[in-house]
Amino acid sequence: MPTDKSKPKATVGIAPTGNYVSEWLGHRLFPTVRLDVAPFVGSGFGTCPFLSDALGQKTRCVKNENSFGVCTVNTFSGSSQQDWLACPYRVISSDLVKAACGRIFGIEGKELPRPVPATVLAAAPEREKFKAEVRATGFGYVFFQAKLGGEISVISTPQSPELSFDVTLVEVMPAAHGFKVGRYGIFEIQTMDFHGSYRDAVNNLRDALRLHGRGFPSSLKANIEWAAEGVEGPNIANVFKRTFYQILLKFQLARQGAAAGTVLAIPRSVWNSWQPFLGAPELVKIGKDAYRVKALDAFPSAIESTNAHICIFDLDSTADEPISPVKVQLFIRVDAEELAHHAFKVVPAGMLKSISESDSILIRIKERLASIWPEIA
Description:
The protein has helices at about 50-55, 95-105, 125-135, 200-210, 215-220, 235-250, 270-280, 335-360, 360-370; strands at about 20-25, 25-30, 70-75, 80-85, 115, 140-145, 155, 165, 165-175, 180-190, 195, 230-235, 260-265, 285, 290-295, 310-315, 325-335. The chain is an alpha+beta fold.
């Protein structure tokens, strides 16, 4: 059951700091509890609202017991709280997928049909509905994801590894004798890894729900530390190192062959945390919600020949509803080689400048060694 040993502990009149499970089974817990208890009691418990919405039927959360129901984690970073995405299905039924689809296939400004999970088309009524929409509009979009038809991947060769796409968007159009598949698009959703486990916090939430029933929301408001127990901070460097190489490859695939384009969707918190790894690139506005990375004089950009984008989004935790809306903030058009230049040329140059000006590494080594071996000082 919930314990009192969690730290930090919320204090009346003082904003709590630390790391919290901020959304559980889609409902907002932190910084303000806005949970609607109705879906949590009885047979509805464990339902993922996002997969259920995407599939059109009640669907259970697919995460394991230690992280069951954890959608996002919120951390306090000096002056503000930030949500980090812990599950890619959190945004799969939102307008984020629709916006990415429009950007990839160049149909912004048109009435875009909602992309449909491939598995939905296995049901004849849904398939007929989709076919009717394609005939009426002239196009439609199907997507594949791990739990929604399976990931699509590039086959490995002796010179290259197998590469899987998070979400593959597929263009479907009417044809003389039915329908045809056109281009495809690559849509990546960046989640965050965390040090440690959510197990203690998840157990607290389960036990509190079991003990308090319909009084769970008010009990949680008075004991928000239950959602913080054992929750550690994001492993920012590890995620960047693990994903950046693959992202560059997927950006390179944009407009190659039948690939229409690539979009990497990342929460604002991730974009902010990646700035030191990307050399804090300057952005230049090129449209209503569109930007590009300012080209460096020494590195001519091939930005016009690519269709690769970083999409920055956030969750509106201030909204009154239990499930926070997804807000698309901006798209950044990028070129893979230019981005690599920032990460692997600009960043090391900044490090070398710091070392040459202060020799800070050697100073730190001397101080650390002197603390355990005084004679060497």
